[in-house]
Amino acid sequence: MSSVPTTNFSPVGGLVESARHPNAAETPPPVAGSIPSPHFALPATMRSETESSFSDEPFKIPVADRVKRLPPYLFGKINKLKHKKRQDGVDVIDLGMGNPTDPPEQFVIDKMIEALADTRNHRYSVSNGVENLRREVAKRYDRKYGVQLNPQSEVIACIGSKEGFSHMCLALMGPGDTAIVPAPTFPIHSYSVMLASGNVIALDVRNPEEFLSNISYTCEHLFPKPKLVIVNFPHNPSGTCIEQDFYVDLVALAKKYGFLVISDFAYADICYDGYQAPSFLATPGAIDVGVELTTMSKGYSMAGWRIGFCCGNSEMVRALGTIKGYYDYGIFQAIQISAIVAMRHGDESIERLCLEYQHRRDSLVDGLNRQGWDIEAPKAGMFVWAKIPEPWSEMGSLPFAMKLLNEAGVAVSPGRGFGEEGEGYLRLAIVENTQRLRQAVREIGRCLKPEPAVV
Ligand SMILES: Cc1ncc(COP(=O)(O)O)c(C=O)c1O
Question: Which residue has the CA at smallest separation from atom 2 of ligand 1?
Fold first, then answer.
């Protein structure tokens, strides 16, 4: 692999680098200060995972540059086709987005109904989350990871972890600041930095050892040095997982080079085959340099409720709290109360849910591998990251995803939506039940079956 092969521009004028393996480097990575004029066409990437209904037409009003420069919406075509298919009565099997189809536990819904009936819960809430909620989060960290957090200063509730993540980037990053993000890239990891006018360097994360050595190479050669490193294990979309020693090395690098760390730990709860995803905060010294985001969207199937947490370094938490204090009035209190109950009594439900996802993973991976795909079963997360098999590998992930939707009625995410490192792959979310996944495998098999030779 070559080092730092591509340079693109962020939607807001920040520099986007894509770096691979520096050890084989012949050219050093570009310097953040040497930013050429920002008039390049942006590569089409997935703007966000939302099925946004907004068009990509240029605005007729003078919107800010940060909005104008957002890239074309790669998923627009797929979403349009998906809606059309549904309108035509096709039963699309939707493996596109990590949006759980399972409901939360009944006791959580019951608590919500009770909390809704209490008229005291309908006022504005505090923007950093009610105290009992922050205490419950701290207790869970202690129970699960042996991490002791001060609920007053080291825990803050967010309107989903994505909101916390984005606003943390806004609190930390500005023009001239650079963040390292994992590639392939969950879109908000780079767009939050770009929307905050920062520069992005995307480093391939699929070999965690190389990822670490690329971080240190970048820190050695970039001036000014990166201010922030974003990590996300279990990784969306590639499913890459790490062990605790990865974070020991990361914390050492953070201290050596003076960068901050945001760990997006969205898939903390969804682990298989006895694997337990490690928490960044369980590493000695981690709290000196970073924070970790967790969510109730995945393990508790509460995605639409919009509740997550940012924990760790008290100055970073305070910076986020300061921004949030201006932007929002907190999460609906009935949701916060239900979240407390979910965390207090939900451990067993999460174990059951993990087993269910594990069955789904096995149905999909084994089924496709039987058809000649070569997919490694992920140890965690809600996605299968699949290399497009021959003879389709040259087709491009977007046309191939369109073909699967058109001819098999199965919606998936093209790897290209996660940046150029994702090309040649598909991401399939295991959000539908096992029966539907088996049906998806059958339909994909039928659609890719070679035509019988004409004699
Ligand atoms: C890596 C990652 N981070 C964050 C999120 C968003 O989580 P939340 O619902 O808590 O905003 C997702 C959702 O798909 C995700 O995949």
Answer: 266
